[in-house]
Amino acid sequence: MRYEIVTFGCQMNEADSGLMAALLDHAGWEPAGSRDDPDLVVINTCAVREKPEQKVFSLLGHLRRRQEGRPGMVIVVAGCMAQAQGEALVKRAGNVDAVVGTRCFHQIAEVAARVRSGEKCIVLTGLEGDPAAVRCRAALGHGRAPLRALVPIIQGCTSYCTYCVVPYVRGAEISREPGDVLDELRDLVRRGTREVTLLGQNVLAYGRDLPPEPPTTFDLLLSLLDRLEGLWRIRFTTCHPRDVTDALIRQMADLGKVCEHIHLPIQAGTDELLTQMNRGYTTRQYRQLVDRLRAEVPGLAVTTDIMVGFPGETEDDFERSLRLYAGISFDAAFTFAYSPRPGTAAAQRSDQVPPKVRLERLHRLIEAQNRITQERNQAQLGAVVEVLVEGRAERGEGLLAGKTRANKQVVFPGDPSLAGSLVRVRLTEAELWGFRGELAAVAGGSRE
């Protein structure tokens, strides 16, 4: 039996899809090829904004037509949208056989078997108890692992930002035991992984829910993983600015495997909006934090999330925000327009910004950030940087592609045999997406 998994949303969703694929493989399923009609389609969904939800319903309409020629095809909707809508999603879509919430991924193979045996309208959306999906990853390793792997270490959120649905669809924070994380990383490294990204809705909250003795904090976990032989690079995301500690900054400066990049969502650029969002910091505190990080971690790249059109945002708010962002000078920003999420406090407000205004501000923000990104990249031309080579570039004959320690994309001419190696590349051309360069030296280290 063949399966296909379609993923919408963040890196955590990508990791969850990888977990479901591993569980299905373990149960005897096989991934469908590009020309195969799958027997099972799993749609792993996002509920953070409205647009990904619209894409899911569009895909379900497309699958309905495919089902006409393959009536036995099973369709499962999983993830955050599934958690939020539950049985209502089954009723609205009509062709959904099962709904699997964010803490029920470990049951995906069982759900598929139940539907194939004739059971319909299965809905699993419980958030209570110990989520086995978080705990069982380390036992699933087989075959070649990716060069760069995503490793969830905590899921859930208790920040309750007024615009965000994540606490309601992911539940309270639950951390994995340090030994469990270490076991998974050892297994990945043994099978060829050289860079890991530690994931969490707020990765810096790691360990708060674990027993106080022995102490378990995110900075201590970094120390533990930094000693792992065969692992070259450690990244982590996403970080709440409120939870960046002195200890974390010291670890970023001192630990050789921790990369010089931090994703630090600011979300808004005035204190009034940050207070209404329940973010827990001021613009001054945020800017001081970025200044300190850049001072203590040489070569640090700072990226962020920025929302426009939050309820009550005025033109003056927006203009002040643009000036703040220009002063901070982010390396890159994920920008988006506010989308009311059912059940959140912000969605209940009467001072919603008109969609047309939100979109117009978004375009202005993107233009401003693109200029900043281009300027920051331009300033790095001539530098020689370490690149982990992932393989052939998607475009361009004879070009390889990889990432710097600062998480910048680089393409350069080179032999395909360098895939999986660390090399030194001189940056020769700056683009919005990263750099073009030329090989300066092989830095040492090979995946093999």
Describe this structure in words.
- The chain is 35% helix and 23% strand.
- The protein has 448 residues and is of the alpha/beta class.
- It has a 6-stranded parallel beta sheet, sandwiched between helices.
- Helix 13 links the parallel strand 13 and strand 14.
- Helix 13 (315-328) runs parallel beside helix 14 (355-378).
- The chain starts with a strand and ends with a strand.
- The mean pLDDT is 94.
What is the topological layout?
Blueprint: E1 2-7, H1 11-26, E2 30-31, E3 40-45, H2 50-69, E4 74-79, H3 80-85, H4 87-93, E5 98-100, H5 108-116, E6 122-124, H6 132-135, E7 148-152, E8 154-155, H7 166-170, E9 174-175, H8 178-190, E10 195-199, H9 218-226, E11 233-237, H10 246-254, E12 261-263, H11 271-277, H12 283-296, E13 301-308, H13 315-328, E14 332-337, H14 355-378, E15 384-392, E16 399-404, E17 409-413, E18 421-430, E19 434-446
Parallel strand pairs: 1-2, 1-3, 3-4, 4-5, 5-6, 7-10, 10-11, 12-13, 13-14, 17-19
Antiparallel strand pairs: 8-9, 15-16, 15-18, 16-17, 18-19
Quickly count the helices.
14
Largest sheet: 6 strands, parallel
The global form is globular
Low-confidence stretches: none
The total domain count is 4
Mean pLDDT across all amino acids: 94
The structure class reads alpha/beta
Number of strands: 19
Question: What is the CATH topology classification name of the largest domain?
Answer: Transcription Regulator spoIIAA
Query: What is the percent of helical residues?
Result: 25-40%
Major beta sheet, strand line-up:
2-1-3-4-5-6
CATH architect. name of the largest domain: 2-Layer Sandwich
**CATH class placement of the largest domain:** Alpha Beta
